[in-house]
Design brief:
- It is built from 10 helices and 5 strands; from the N terminus they run ααααααααβαββαββ.
- It is of the alpha+beta class.
- Among the domains are: about 10-190, no CATH class; about 320-459, Heat Shock Protein 90, CATH 3.30.565.
- It has a 5-stranded mixed sheet, covered by helices on one side.
- The longest helix has about 90 residues, at about 150-240.
- It starts with about 25 loop residues before the first helix and ends in a 15-residue tail after the last strand.
- About 35% of the residues are buried.
- The model is unreliable at about 1-15, about 280-315 and about 445-459 (pLDDT under 50).
Length: about 450
């Protein structure tokens, strides 16, 4: 028997069924109800004519009345309560056997409150039992040996047999329909959630990629800007002394070659890190795509697009550590800068990211002195404290020496601040009262596990 009761049409098979006219969810539902109404009308037509003959009424009137009563099954989905009430009303005339069964099933399967369904089911059962009891009693009136209890029990069983099955079947269909709808809603909700998680993972991946690009650009800036700036300064000095002091010119040329080789080595190391980051990024996005196709939760890869490992911020052998500060200062001295290095506190090894950040801050600050304050007296101060490492690079005003034509991208101070704040430190830069410039950074020297991982904390 078809699912009854007015409800929203389902979309089994992946596509929504064609809607039917008026209150029918599908065209086949209209065909089914029309067929049931025709059969019920034919039944009531015959029963109405028979009942009219027994009661002395014109048979044609009874037949027409039965035809109309049976045809009311056509509106069972729209007004199930009215159909059941009509079936109860014609029960004494012994009309509408099919009308009563289908009406009760439709009522139980529809969204009508259960108390109304229970009340009408009891009324239908009681009416059926009374009619059956009277009919059996008249049929067995001449058989005085039939006990009354047998007639009562038979009437009750007949009433239950005609009432209970359609009601129970309708309640089952109603519960099943609600379960299917709830499961469909839950599936739709999970699909929306998976879509949101996938979009969130994509956004995090894009953010991680942007952070990685920023990190690499910052590292390239430090490597290129410092080495090339020193090479330009030495080239200017070499040009000035090439004819006057050949030995000094030879030493400057050798120093230029050493600096060029160091710059090439650092660039080669950075390109190697970049290639590694691209391979890992590709693998992560491949895993994300497989997870989405498989339909499993993307929480396992949500935002997990690993950029280069924090240790890949730069190879350990590239010289970016606090132990190399003296060599860094010596390079600036060789370029003609008057610079002094002061170390306070007990020297100790810190986490790689902390040492790299402090080294890069000093490196970029010295590069800025070469660019903007040639000949200025510069002081580099490194302080080891209990929970942090502090560096300060302060220079006085320029002594009027001609400045080399060094380009400036305007990202040096921004890059230093990003490096320091990514590790939870503080950064301050600005002019001094004496006309110089000061760069200060305080970096927490925490255990390795407490240092933020990933691109933001890198270099």
């Amino acid at each position: 028997m078809s699912t009854t009761g007015a409800h929203v049409p389902d979309d089994r098979g992946g596509g929504r069924a064609r809607p039917g006219p008026w209150w029918w969810p599908r065209r086949r539902s209209l065909v089914l109800d029309a067929t049931l109404a025709a059969v019920s009308a034919l039944e009531c037509f015959l029963e109405g004519a028979s009942f009219a003959e027994k009661t002395g009424i014109e048979p044609g009137i009874g037949a027409v009345f039965g035809l109309l009563v049976g045809a009311s099954l056509l509106v069972r989905r729209r007004w199930p309560v009215a159909v059941v009430l009509l079936a109860i009303a014609v029960t004494p005339a012994q009309l509408g056997f099919l009308l009563g069964i289908v009406g009760l099933y439709t009522l139980a399967a529809s969204e009508v409150p259960r108390r109304i369904t229970a009340t009408l089911a009891v009324m239908t059962g009681a009416g059926t039992m009374i009619v059956a009891f009277i009919q059996m009693r008249e049929s067995l009136r001449q058989d005085s040996e039939t006990p009354m209890v047998v007639i009562v029990i038979t009437s009750v069983l007949m009433a239950l047999g005609l009432t209970a099955p359609p009601v129970l079947l309708g309640l089952y269909v109603r519960a099943r329909r609600r379960l299917v709808e709830s499961l469909r809603e839950r599936a739709d909700g999970l699909e929306r959630e998976l879509t949101l998680l996938a979009e969130k993972a994509t956004e995090r991946a894009e953010r991680a990629r942007a952070d990685e690009r920023t990190r690499i650009a910052r590292e390239m800036h430090d490597v290129v800007a410092h080495r090339v700036s020193l090479m330009v300064v030495h080239a200017a000095a070499l040009q000035a002394v090439a004819l006057k002091d050949p030995e000094k010119a030879s030493a400057s040329a050798q120093l230029l070659g050493d600096m060029g080789r160091q710059a090439l080595n650092e660039l080669r190391q950075m390109l190697g890190v970049l290639r590694t980051a691209q391979v890992v990024d590709t693998l992560a996005f491949t895993e994300l795509g497989v997870a989405r196709v498989a339909g499993r939760s993307v929480g396992a890869v949500d935002g997990a697009v690993p950029a280069a490992d924090s240790s890949a911020d730069g190879p350990q052998g590239d010289g970016a550590c606090l132990a190399r500060l003296e060599a860094l200062v010596e390079e600036s001295r060789a370029a003609g800068m008057r610079v002094e290095l002061t170390v306070e506190g007990e020297e100790r090894s810190c986490e790689n990211q902390v040492e790299r950040t402090a080294y890069r801050v000093v490196q970029e600050a010295l590069t800025n002195v070469h660019k903007h304050a040639p000949g200025a007296v510069t002081e580099v101060r490194l302080a080891y404290r209990e929970a942090e490492v502090a560096v300060r690079v302060q220079n006085g005003p320029s002594d009027g020496s001609p400045a080399a034509a060094l380009p400036s991208g305007g990202h040096g101070l921004v890059g230093m601040k990003e490096r320091v704040t990514a590790l939870g430190g503080g950064f301050v830069a600005g002019h001094t009262e004496a006309g110089g410039f000061r760069v200060s950074a305080m970096i927490p020297a925490l255990p390795t596990a407490a240092i933020p991982a990933g691109p933001p904390a890198a270099g």
